Amino acid sequence: MEPTVLNHERNAADRRKRMPMLFDDYRDEDYYVLPRKFSIVARVEVKFPIEPRYHDRQHFILSDINGAKIEAMTSSYETVKHFNNLLHEKHVFKMHNVDFSISMGEHQFRHISGPMELYLTRQTVVEPYTVPFQMPPFPKHIILSLADIAELPNRTLVDIMAIVVHLDTIHRTMWGPFRKIVVMDARWSLHAIKVWGDLLNKNALRWVLAKENCSIIIGTMFRQFRRQECIESSDYTTIHFNPFHHNNHHFEPTQKALMAWNDRQFAVRFLEEQRRR
């Protein structure tokens, strides 16, 4: 067993020397090899509000240069204050001495699902990344079968890809307007997504054209709510209409079938059945 352990240590050491560390490159055996400090280049996708009671905890969602996401956390009042002032959304940073760890999502709430998470500590050094490069336009890991979302913890943020099939009427509430949209995933299954506010108003024509043309959309940072049996747009959601994506071929047969079958009453019945539950 000793040669195997030594090989794991050498491999982990070799990967530490590579700059930057990619989130998907981190392996389980790295957790058991000390030190677990790495350097990364990442964009801050979301900076969540500081924990309101004691101001001693804050979460971030970071993405690397391949579009893979990971949740980052920091704790203690002074450290939270430091990173809250230092890190800004949509800015790219180089970070040294970040601590990777196995995700605690089974025991504590996490905004995104994944095998690993990382911590920003007092030893973490952050500097702006000034080398010009192109961040990927879409997340690396996108859910194509929306039924898989049901297995995730409640209120998890997810990135989805689907075909627009039907638009429900717009409902106006004290929290703003929303609309349920029926989509079809890569497995030909119907699902309802709830879209709020500016994502409706600023994209009104795009939504109509997407329904008429059975267009593909990619939606990032949708939040799952188990009780409502649907996913909702969040304050961090972005919608991409007709994206040029390598997974488009999974939806091409579905698009052709929907365009040939003009009757969309099956989507209306789907919504009615969902309301009766």
From TrEMBL:
Top-level taxon: Eukaryota
InterPro entries: NA-bd_OB-fold
Source species: Zea mays
Protein name from the UniProt record: Uncharacterized protein
Taxonomic lineage from the root: Eukaryota, Viridiplantae, Streptophyta, Embryophyta, Tracheophyta
